[in-house]
Specification:
Blueprint lengths: L2 H4 L3 E6 L7 H12 L3 E7 L3 H11 L3 E3 L2 H6 L5 E4 L6 H10 L3 E4 L7 H14 L3 E3 L7 H11 L6 E8 L9 E2 L15 H16 L3 E9 L5 E3 L5 E2 L6 E8 L4 E7 L8 E7 L2 E7 L11 E6 L5 E3 L3 H4 L7 H19 L7 H20 L3 E2 L1
Parallel strand pairs: 1-2, 1-4, 2-3, 4-5, 5-6, 7-13, 8-10
Antiparallel strand pairs: 7-14, 9-12, 9-18, 10-11, 12-13, 14-15, 15-16, 16-17
Helix pairs in contact: 2-10, 5-6, 6-11
C-alpha cells in the first residue's frame, strides 16, 4: 500500500455485490459503510442492470458487468470477492495481477492446488490479503483464547467438538442458487465451509493440528432440487469425523453431522489439568459467529456460566452478527496497514486451513493418519 493510499480512505470494489440478496449485502456493505477507513467506490455483477441498481442504492459511480474492468480502476485499492467459490480463483488472480489488495470470502479456492497458487502469487506480488475467516476475531473466541492462556483450566489436555449444521444444503436439499454445492469439486461443502470455519477458532484457542485421522462420508446419498423436488447427484459429505493431536500433544476430536440436534447445535468442550470449559451454540452449529455460551468449571467446584466482558464486544454490537464479524476483519486490516502488522487472517492462513481440510479427505481415502 502506497504512502498516498495509507493517508486516505481505502477505495473498495465489491465483486458480487447486490442490493437485493447475498452475503455482500448482509455483511460486507453494512460493515464498510460504518468504517471510516473505507469507501465503497465500485461494484460488479454479471449483469449491468443489477450492478447499476446496486451502485445507485449505495450512491457510488462505478458499476460493471465484469470484474476485469473493476480491478483495473485506479480508484480501487481493495477488491472484495463475494461470489461463488468456483469463481474465486480467476477473480482473485486478476485482482492481484492488477496490483490490488484482496479480501476473498472463505473458502479461498475450490481445492488445495488452487489455494497454493493464489497464496504464492500474493506472496510474490507482496500484496496485502484477507480471507473471510472471521472466527479469529469473534469476541467469544478471543475471550476463550485468553482464558486458556491465563491458565483458567490449567494445561489443556483434550478437546472435542460436536456440531449439527442445520442448513438444508448440508443434508442434500438445494435451492436453485446453491445447486452447484452438490458437487464436491466446486469446493463449497460442509467440510470446506462449516468445518473450515471451525478450524480457525480451534487453532486460535488451542493450536494447529499436528496429525489426524478422519472420516468424510456422504451417508444420505442423492440430493433434492427444492425447485421441483427432483433427485440430483450429490457427492458432498454430510458426516465428518476426525481424531488427532494438536500442538502441545492436545488430544482433539470433532464430529460434524448434518441436520437438527436434539440438544445444542454445537458443543465444544476443553479439558485441562485444573478444570474444563464448555462452549455451546444454538445457531446453526457454528463456532465462528453467533452467540456462544461459555461454562467454566475449576476442579470439583460447581460449573459457572461466564459472560464475555464488554471490552471484547467493542463497537460493532449494533451491527447484525454477519456484518459485525466482517467489520472486525476490515478493522484489523486497516490497523495492519497503519502499523505494518499482520494480524488479519490472510491467504497464508487460508492455505493452512485448506491443507488441514485436504488431510481430512486424504486420510479417509487412504486410511492413513495424516501428519503436518
Amino acid at each position: 500500500m502506497s504512502q498516498s493510499t495509507s493517508s486516505r480512505r481505502i477505495g473498495v470494489g465489491i465483486v458480487g455485490a447486490s442490493a437485493q440478496r447475498g452475503w455482500a449485502r448482509v455483511a460486507h456493505i453494512p460493515a464498510l459503510q460504518m468504517l471510516e477507513a473505507f469507501d465503497i467506490r465500485g461494484v460488479s455483477t454479471t449483469r449491468m442492470d443489477s450492478a447499476r441498481e446496486t451502485a445507485e442504492a449505495l450512491d457510488i459511480e462505478l458499476a460493471f458487468d465484469n470484474h476485469q474492468e473493476l480491478v483495473e480502476r485506479p480508484e480501487i485499492d481493495l477488491v472484495v470477492v463475494a461470489v461463488k467459490v468456483p469463481d474465486h480463483r480467476n477473480i482473485v488472480h486478476d485482482a492481484l495481477a492488477a496490483g490490488k489488495m484482496v479480501y476473498c470470502e472463505w473458502p479461498l479456492a475450490r481445492n488445495l492446488f488452487e489455494a497454493q497458487a493464489l497464496a504464492a502469487f500474493a506472496r510474490d506480488k507482496k500484496l496485502k490479503t484477507v480471507v473471510g475467516l472471521q472466527g479469529r476475531q469473534h469476541p467469544p473466541v478471543r475471550f476463550l483464547r485468553d482464558l486458556v492462556r491465563q491458565g483458567a483450566i490449567g494445561r489443556p489436555l483434550s478437546t472435542s467438538i460436536r456440531a449439527h449444521p442445520t442448513e438444508a444444503t448440508w443434508y442434500g436439499h438445494f435451492d436453485p442458487p446453491f445447486e452447484f454445492m452438490a458437487e464436491s469439486a466446486n469446493g463449497a461443502t460442509m467440510l470446506s465451509i462449516a468445518v473450515g470455519h471451525a478450524l480457525e477458532p480451534l487453532a486460535q484457542v488451542l493450536g494447529e493440528f499436528e496429525s489426524l485421522s478422519a472420516v468424510v462420508s456422504n451417508q444420505r446419498g442423492e440430493g433434492i432440487r427444492l425447485r421441483d423436488g427432483s433427485r440430483m447427484k450429490n457427492d458432498t459429505p454430510d458426516e465428518i469425523a476426525a481424531v488427532g493431536l494438536l500442538q502441545n500433544h492436545i488430544v482433539a476430536s470433532l464430529h460434524y453431522s448434518a441436520g437438527n440436534a436434539l440438544g445444542k447445535a454445537m458443543s465444544w468442550e476443553i479439558q485441562g489439568t485444573a478444570g474444563s470449559l464448555l462452549v455451546e451454540s444454538s445457531m446453526a452449529g457454528y463456532i465462528h459467529m453467533g452467540d456462544l455460551s461459555i461454562t467454566l468449571r475449576r476442579g470439583l467446584a460447581p460449573p459457572q456460566q461466564i459472560t464475555v466482558p464488554p471490552a471484547y464486544l467493542a463497537e460493532y454490537s449494533r451491527l447484525g452478527d454477519p456484518a459485525a464479524g466482517v467489520a472486525r476483519l476490515y478493522s484489523q486490516l486497516a490497523a495492519d496497514l497503519r502499523t505494518g502488522t499482520s494480524n488479519v487472517p490472510d491467504f497464508e492462513t487460508a492455505l493452512r486451513r485448506q491443507r488441514t481440510l485436504d488431510a481430512f479427505s486424504t486420510s479417509f481415502s487412504t486410511g492413513v493418519r495424516e501428519r503436518f
